[in-house]
Amino acid sequence: MGKIKPAVSAREAALQVIYRVTEEGAYAGLALDEVLKSAGLDGRERALATELAYSAIKAWGTLDWALGLFLRQPLEKLPPWIRCVLRLGATQLLYVPRIPPRAAIYETVELAKKYGHRGTTGLVNGVLRHLDRQKDALPYPDWKTDPAGYLALRYYHPRWLVERWLEEFGYQETEYLCRADNEPPPTIARVNTLKTRKDVLAARLQAEGATVRPARYAPEGLVVEGLGALEASPSFQEGLFYVQDEGSQLVSHALHPDSGAWVIDASAAPGGKTTHLAQLMADRGTILACDVHRGRLDLIAANCRRLGVTCVRTVLVDARELGERYPAAADYLLIDAPCSGLGVLRRRPDARWRKEAPRTRELARLQLAILMGARQALKPGGVLVYSTCTLLPEENQEVVREFLERAGEFRPDSLEPWLPVLPPDLMVTARQGWVQFLPQRHGTDGFFIARIKKLEK
């Protein structure tokens, strides 16, 4: 029997993902999964489709700018599919140098024939040929006179975000941060100590074909390379680990509940931190895993089953109502707050284009409301950890500062005893009760963690 022909080529699969994300507003990961499921591609072609789609989506703003240089009409005036065909072609010319330009242009023009007409086919051919000739001399803004414009286009970030980071970090640090956002993130397995040991899992993953080394900061973390999708690993299916970045793992260590404690995880889905807390408690005690969406509670329950966690109860509740619902019930309270997600842009190629500048202030109000509403669920002497996966002080330090001013019975508590392996540049603030991990400095996702103690009566 001959090899079954795929339904579409790798490039056409990538084109369909690009269209769904840039024209229909779909999420990149979901769109990619749906397209690949029906494409019938082999492993190599799936990898190419993924690379092309994610590269185009990540560089969306810069691609549209570069293409606009060679168009006689605005890009938005073109038919949507042709816009996406051009984005796909430009991606290959600018960001995938191993693909010969002639092949990139030819294959893209073939797609233009299928998704357009003779006129648009000629337009695609002409624009891409002009771009190929000029790609090493594109007129980026001058970094001295327009640093935000230069960094936004060179490293494909929204201008408003680059401007905000320039205010916060300065030019060099912002450039490093933008570059870090474009690097593939490491894959970190958090060892499930309820079922196995770190050395045993490392050996098991190596036997499955992976390269494994210990993570830098997270005690249960292993950096895993060369295994493809970890979720397909037999070790994963047996519940021996959970895929979780180091920054995220350190949140649970910052809280570090005692075995047998009563814990509330205020915004728990999909359950990474919840199940990690259960590990630290040796699966003894009670964890209330809360969320406002029933479907997300199902994700928590599924992860608990896979990992063998039994001390978790899922609860449908708004975190702002926890104080009324469970007054003075918890020994420990984790608030991993909804946030702008600017610390995890490297994991989500479309996320940078979904953010809006004014939204951060709105989120900060929600974060403070959650803290104020949940605080009374904590017993006197109890511990609260507030965390986000973002980088901006208005969602992090400023929220904590305002909370401490409004809720007088709380004080910062040193993180040093609970996070013993820390980068030197975080030691001072750790003693003050908070740390800000940054992708460009620490190699983790961007995470803010603050530990706060409720005073005894």
Automatic annotation (TrEMBL):
The UniProt record lists the SAM-dependent MTase RsmB/NOP-type domain at 177-455
Task: Please give the chief subcellular localization of this protein.
Answer: cytoplasm
| Catalyzed reactions | cytidine(967) in 16S rRNA + S-adenosyl-L-methionine = 5-methylcytidine(967) in 16S rRNA + S-adenosyl-L-homocysteine + H(+)
Write one Gene Ontology MF term.
RNA binding
Q: What keywords are annotated for this sequence in UniProt?
A: Cytoplasm, Methyltransferase, RNA-binding, rRNA processing, S-adenosyl-L-methionine, Transferase
Q: Where does S-adenosyl-L-methionine bind?
A: S267, A268, A269, P270, G271, G272, K273, D291, D318, D336
Locate the active site: C389
A Pfam family reported for this protein in Swiss-Prot or TrEMBL: NusB
What's the stated role of this polypeptide?
Specifically methylates the cytosine at position 967 (m5C967) of 16S rRNA.
PANTHER family tied to this protein:
NOP2 YEAST -RELATED NOL1/NOP2/FMU SUN DOMAIN-CONTAINING, RIBOSOMAL RNA SMALL SUBUNIT METHYLTRANSFERASE B-RELATED
Q: What is the protein name given in its UniProt record?
A: 16S rRNA (cytosine(967)-C(5))-methyltransferase
Q: From which lineage does this chain's organism come?
A: Bacteria, Bacillati, Bacillota, Clostridia, Neomoorellales
Q: Which gene encodes it?
A: rsmB
